[in-house]
Amino acid sequence: MTRKPIRIAVLHFAHETVTFLKNDTTLEDFTYPGSPAMGEALLAYDPKSYMGGFVKVAREHEGVELVGVESPLWPRTGTGSGWITTEAYETFLGKMIAGLDEEGPFDGVYLSLHGAMAVRGVARPEADIARRTREVVGRKVFIVGTFDPHGNEDEEFLREADMAFTVKYFPHYDSHLQGERAARMLIRAIRGDYRPSTVTVKVPIISPTVLQWTGASPWMDLVQRALVWEAREPDVYVNVFFGFPFADVPDVGMTIQVMTNGKPPLARTVADDLAAWAWRRREALLQSTTVYPIVEGVRRAKEAVGRGETPVVLADHSDRSGYATWVLKEVIAQDLSDVLIATIADARAIDALAAKDVRAGDPFDMEVGGRVDESAGPPVRLTGKVVGVTNAFGMLWVSVGFGRGNVLLLSRYLTQIMEPSQLKGPDFDLAQFKVIAIKSRVHFRRGFDDSGFARTILLVEPDPPYLGTVRLDGLPYEHVDLKRFYPYGAPQFP
Ligand SMILES: [Zn+2]
């Protein structure tokens, strides 16, 4: 039997916006070789993630045509920029909507989103994207979105769209899988085999991202509970948004979404179960990870080395610029040895070193890091010797030896080291270090913890509550009343 051909529009618009950063995310940040993308370039842009999963499964179905509608890719700034300007948002969304209109009609639309996009003057961008998509394609066309668990969402998105599939794990291991699901369920819905009936519940819990590691209880148990519901009830899908507290937006906080095949009471039961479980365990959820002040963290690292519990990973989770010098300063003050610090960002230092054609063996005496804002701290004067100069991610990295067997890696931008393998090559051997100090919140656990690499893991942040802090009540929120959330207020729930 030949089936009616299906046309699906594919669009992408994603960012995780740290609204407390001073540099807005602009039109220029989204515009670079390769972005915006359309057609096959858009469909092929991220084969291991949501897009790759979606395209793979959609193309396993006969008679399905995918149309990549011109869309911006991630901004060049990565996650290191603030509010998206209204100009950037309207320009790109305007093009996306015009493209949908011109290239239609479609049977379905796939929106590859993140959920923590924050736009000046637009309270709920993902819901707005869905609403404006709906206006063009009409009520009969199915719309599905994929999301990151750091999305800040409420019931608005699924009021406009039909389905959403959100990554369950942090680190985000299952983005390809959620893309696959989105494709399969969209095609089933178009063919009349799935009638999305959904429920969204906001849970008044706000948590810093560093606590949300799903490799240990109770966050692991929260994921497991969602997986159990999906296993025991065919056609049930559960999304748990942990939320992203560094975006000052009204729909911040935890959110549960449940999808069923035309069973509203079942969707309600499952959503209420997950929400009630999270609420019961709220205290444990907020106590899952200990974060030490820098001085204590470095002291504990030194003690762990003394006990032979190495390698030690010392993660400054809160540095959002990459320039923070707090750990370097304390490593020098407490005279640690055999420490690798990877990395401190300092574009000015990198440019100066490149200009004088720096080479291994050159003496080094410069102030590094700091300066960009108060969260980065003061620059630290470092004297030592250049160990190596290398090209990483298309950019110059300079490694500087100092003290007793210590090495500092200087990079141009914030670099989140997630895997030890990222640290191969810059003219040293990872095995020579007892302590590895990195800038990462949870992503590093993929390569340093889940892999069994590190014997000691210590998370640290500076004393004042800067913008990546776990002390959210130290942040200048304008659109969020923290008193409406546990642990800052005493909200009634359910
Ligand atoms: Zn995320």
Overview of the molecule:
- This protein has two domains: 6-286, Response regulator (Rossmann fold, 3-Layer(aba) Sandwich); 291-463, no CATH class.
- Helix content is 29%, strand content 22%.
- It is built from 14 helices and 19 strands.
- The chain has helices at 27-30, 39-43, 50-60, 86-103, 125-137, 156-160, 175-190, 219-232, 264-280, 282-286, 294-306, 326-333, 347-355, 445-448, and strands at 6-12, 24-25, 64-68, 82-84, 108-112, 142-147, 163-166, 196-203, 237-241, 254-261, 291-293, 312-316, 339-345, 363-368, 380-392, 395-402, 406-411, 435-438, 456-461.
- The strands form four sheets. A nine-stranded mixed beta sheet has the order 11-19-12-18-13-17-16-15-14.
- Helix 3 (50-60) runs parallel beside helix 7 (175-190) and helix 8 (219-232) runs antiparallel to helix 9 (264-280).
- It is globular, with a radius of gyration of 24 Å.
- The N and C termini lie far apart (50 Å).
- The model has no long low-confidence stretch (mean pLDDT 95).
- Bound molecules: zinc ion (ZN).
